């Protein structure tokens, strides 16, 4: 996976704009949590660029970037969880999952429902 680091609140407006062209995935990771590490490893192991229709993945270390994490929750009107993925399309969060509900097959299914 080729992660883009999410480290500044100002990136969220860019993500909204970027999601007008193609889906964006945000992975909120707690470096202190074994469940978060397991979810991240499983996602990275199963991620196939050819199966995600140009989706751009962003990685947010929420321990190092707590204010950015809070802004993600507020911007996309999604309660904070950790670990958590958000799938952004056309400026809105269309899917989120946390903990062991994070899985590549479900992400693929959600992506297949996005109209080009």
Mean pLDDT: 94
Q: Determine the fraction of residues in helical runs and give it as a percent range.
A: 25-40%
Query: Biggest sheet, open or closed, and with what strands and sense?
Result: 5 strands, mixed
Low-pLDDT residue intervals, each spanning 5 or more residues: none
Protein name: Bacillithiol system redox-active protein YtxJ
Pfam family, one: BrxC
List keywords for this structure.
alpha/beta; 5-stranded mixed beta sheet; Glutaredoxin; globular; 116 residues; 23% strand
Describe this structure in words.
With 116 residues, the protein is an alpha/beta fold. The protein has a single domain (4-112), classed as Glutaredoxin (3-Layer(aba) Sandwich). 34% of the residues lie in helices and 23% in strands. It contains 4 helices and 5 strands; from the N terminus they run E-H-E-H-E-H-E-E-H. It has helices at 11-18, 34-46, 66-75, 104-112, and strands spanning 4-5, 24-29, 56-61, 84-89, 92-98. Strands 1-3-2-4-5 form a 5-stranded mixed beta sheet, sandwiched between helices. Helix 2 (34-46) links the parallel strand 2 and strand 3. It is globular and about 35 Å long. It starts with a strand and ends with a helix.
What's the layout of helices and strands?
Elements lengths: L3 E2 L5 H8 L5 E6 L4 H13 L9 E6 L4 H10 L8 E6 L2 E7 L5 H9 L4
Parallel strand pairs: 1-3, 2-3
Antiparallel strand pairs: 2-4, 4-5
